Prior knowledge:
Structural class: alpha+beta
Largest sheet: 2 strands, antiparallel
Shape: flat
Strand order of the largest sheet: 1-2
Strand content: 5-15%
Order of helices and strands: HHHHEE
Helix content: 10-25%
Distance between the termini: 26 Å
Radius of gyration: 20 Å
Number of helices: 4
Amino acid sequence: MDIKESKMDIKEDKMDIKEDKMDIKEGKMDIKEGKMDIKEGEMDIKEGKMDIKEGEMDIKEGKNGHQRIKNGH
Length: 73
């Protein structure tokens, strides 16, 4: 399926994240030893939980002819 490049372009201003939003004060990132310990098995993901049902990532054609990705919002 051919998609013209212009339809897939994302304008830069939509992708820009202002620096102040990304700044995290040093103290907020400090984690005391032990809080990051994860007991064996807690991070296991049962088979199927990460599966994406067919169709959720499909790109539907919008009314204006531009490609839109369904993001659940």
